Amino acid sequence: MATHSLFAKGAAALAAIALAVGIGGVSAAQADEAPTPQAGTITITAPVAQADDNMKPPTFTGREFTAYQLASYVSPQTNADHTAITGYGLANAAGVSDADVLSWIRAAAVTNGNVDENLKSVLSVSGGTLTFTGEAADLTPIEFVAKYFYGTGTDRYGNQMANSLQVRLFADAAATSGALKSGTQATVAATQATFTRLKEGLYLIDETDSQNDSAQTVSRAMITGTPMTVEGQTYTTVQGADSANSFTLGSIALKAEQVETAKTVAEISSANNQIAQMQSQRVFTITTNVPDYTHEYSGIADPVFTVSDKPSTGVDPFTTTGAQTAVDGLKLTATNGKGETSTLVKGTDYTVATKPDTADADYGFTITLTNPRALSGDTITTTYKATVIALTQALTNTATSNFSNDPYAAQSMGKASATANLYTTRIGLSKIAYGDANTKLDGAQFSVTGANNAAVKFSTHGKGNYYVDPNGTETAVTAGDVAIYGLGADSDGATTYTFTETKAPEGYLLGANGKHVTFTVTVDPTYSDHDVTSVAFQAGSQDHKNFLNMTTPAMWQQNQTVGASDARQASNVFVGGTVSVKNTKNASDFAKTGGEITRVLAAVAVLAGLGAVLLVGARMRRRTSAR
């Protein structure tokens, strides 16, 4: 097979340099971050988002790459001080024919039988046959690629002089042709992939595993070269006419990206994700980014990008007017890499499908972008409102972005999900006999007041469960063994509740000296980055300490603090202890309360003082009489 030394053709020397530059050399800054390439190695490094680009770099975990040699180097030359390559030629690698390369050139340069405008002076097509003309007449197919398929700028991944559409299409055609049979597998680490022991030359690198259901896009095929060895010295720099046309061999930035989906929740009038109660209203925010379908993934004819949200059945995001169901307060915005934000229009920029039936496994809604290509690289922010309608199950809300993620397989879809948790609280309340904790009592009732001494209302869902509910019809808690949900809700700080026994179990006393048994429970949430991270519970009583079982758990005697990790294990419920309230049939038991004992001691002190005064007076009278 004939070979041509491009550096020997004068102007073609720059074309030889442009070959590897345009087909994937990394910038000097990125090359500094990567390991120094060695002879026979190629390292794939993480991409670096360029200015005005919202690209999220992908990970390497789980990826597989194969390198196929396209050409070998011919007669490389160096500069005078032997620090860089200044020119070289190319010859087809074993197993790569001129016919193969011509078919890949046709895919990159000819559309509907018409040659690309920039190549008409050097390439013609007739009856499906390609002919190199003019100054390209003597070039081999691989040399034609080297001379004319090169870029003039940096691609969005940080590869220098690699923004050539022809190179991308050429690489795609080679990767999907099936002509390249034998390749070398890369060793993949968390942040890079490395090929070793390669024959020196030009390689096509193809990702050979699927990223279906992954948050990553499949990388575009990449073309780059190994370092060159000249007279025993390894060269990693190819020197162009100026520094802008110089590049590093042996390293290329991965042509892929990642979709990140995040979801947050906050109370409507506060930035914090507060404790929830029945009728709590929340604002959910979903953020995600659209891959760039305009350049590297332009081959996907009709890219798909959707955002699906699946609230738990205890959270209702819908409003209904007549027969029309809509997502409450739904709003979408798009922010580009320059930070410019625009509001998207329903019916024009996106559509919404709702499934408000709580019995439906797909309960929730799906947003579909009408033209994802027009929003390429943008960050999409979705907000909506929802109301808590049940606290009987874990309050988890999961959003999922589904997107076209493979430039070669239209049916392949990526997926990125995020979950936002709502939290509530629970304490137990039980009634036991005074002096006999094993005797459980039924029938006692407690009124509850909260902030500003406002009465707390409840709703009930099943025996023994009470839910703080502003629209509830229950104004008292009937205690045997019950659970109370939602204390401390919709608040950024501590809330103290006062429980007053208003009805005692049959045959038992309600209180003494006109005072009913009362106790307090304080619920105090802590926030970090607007998310509740812990809740402290504290119970106590001023006058009836001996009527509260404060030993189970012992933490009631101080602060019982429950962390978010424990709450998630309990279906997103911060579970406090149980307050066991005693009832007695003997009025004298009430004298043992802290307040009563204090008053008795005070009375004794007063009487003792008065007795002392009377005694002193009597002694003085006796002394006077004696005189």
User: What is the percent of helical residues?
Assistant: 10-25%
Q: Please tell me the overall pLDDT.
A: 85
> Which value, in Å, is the CA radius of gyration?
38 Å
Number of strands: 45
Low-confidence runs of at least 5 consecutive residues:
1-24, 26-34, 593-627
**What summary fits the major beta sheet?**
7 strands, mixed
Briefly note the structural class of the backbone.
mainly beta
Characterize the overall form: elongated
- Number of DSSP helical runs: 7
Proportion of residues in extended strands: 35-45%
Distance between the termini: 149 Å
* Number of separate structural domains: 4
In brief:
With 627 residues, the protein is mainly beta. The protein is elongated.
Topology:
Elements lengths: L11 H11 L5 H6 L8 E4 L19 E14 L6 E8 L5 H12 E2 L2 E2 L7 E4 L2 E4 L8 H8 L16 H12 L7 E2 L1 E2 L3 E4 L5 E7 L14 E4 L2 E3 L2 E3 L1 E2 L8 E2 L2 E3 L8 E6 L13 E9 L15 E6 L4 E2 L1 E4 L2 E4 L3 E5 L5 E3 L6 E6 L8 E6 L9 E10 L7 E9 L8 E9 L2 E10 L2 E5 L3 E6 L8 E3 L4 E4 L8 E3 L1 E5 L9 E9 L7 E2 L2 E2 L1 E11 L2 E10 L7 E2 L10 E4 H6 L3 E11 L10 H33 L1
Parallel strand pairs: 1-17, 31-45, 35-37
Antiparallel strand pairs: 1-10, 2-3, 2-8, 2-11, 4-5, 6-7, 9-10, 11-12, 13-14, 15-16, 18-19, 19-28, 20-27, 20-29, 21-28, 22-23, 24-25, 24-28, 26-27, 29-30, 31-32, 31-37, 33-36, 33-38, 34-35, 38-41, 39-40, 41-42, 42-44, 43-45
